[in-house]
Amino acid sequence: MHELGNWFVTIIQPIISMLKVEGFGPFLALMILTVGIVVMLAAIIHFVGFSSKLKRAIGAVGDTETEEAFYQRYEELDQFFKSEKNLGACWREFTETVIHPHVARPGGTQPIIRNTSRPTDFFIANFFVL
Q1: How far apart are CA 41 and CA 54, in angstroms?
Q2: CB atoms within 10 A of CB 101
Q3: What's the rounded Cα separation, in Å, for the pair 14 and 63?
Q4: For a tag site, which of 18, 20, 80, 92 has the least CB within 10 Å?
Q5: For the stretch 111-125, what's the b/e string if a residue is b when 16 or more beta carbons lie within 10 angstroms of its beta carbon?
Q6: How far, in Å, CA of 72 to CA of 130, rounded?
């Protein structure tokens, strides 16, 4: 155990001695600030990119107001969401619970796609605050 303490002192001693060098404190503060700014910019760039993709997805689905319209546009929406990197996983989970009209009502005449779960189970709108 004593050897571990000596090893730690050997490692940490040069770092502590750097704090005694004049001008190192402001340099360290500048480096921490720079790293913080870079991380913040990366987060903003990621958010803006994801936000624009989400707005496109909402626009794609927004035109579909009735169940029949959703059925008619299902293939188009399916291709759109499968091509989206971030929303594709949510869409795949959603489509696993979809019940197509020919399965739900064999011989039925209503072109309505049903689902065993609510879409909010997969797409949480409040999570994606714009």
Answers
A1: 20
A2: 17
A3: 64
A4: 20
A5: eebeeeeeeeebbee
A6: 29
Query: pTM for the whole thing?
Result: 0.51
DSSP 8-state assignment for residue 98: E
Res 101 pLDDT > 70: no
Question: 80 Cβ partners below 8 Å, 6+ apart?
Answer: 57, 60
First-to-last C-alpha distance (Å) of the chain? 54
The answer to whether the beta carbons of residues 67 and 119 sit under 8 Å apart is no
Q: Which amino acid is at 80?
A: F
Q: If DSSP codes are grouped into helix, strand and coil, which group holds residue 60?
A: helix
Strands 98-99 and 114-115: antiparallel
Alpha-helical (H) ranges within the chain are 2-19, 24-62, 67-83, 88-95, 101-104
Quick one: tokens of 37?
A: 């700014």
Residue 106's pLDDT band, with cuts at 50, 70 and 90, is: low
- Per the listing, tokens 């039925």 go with 108
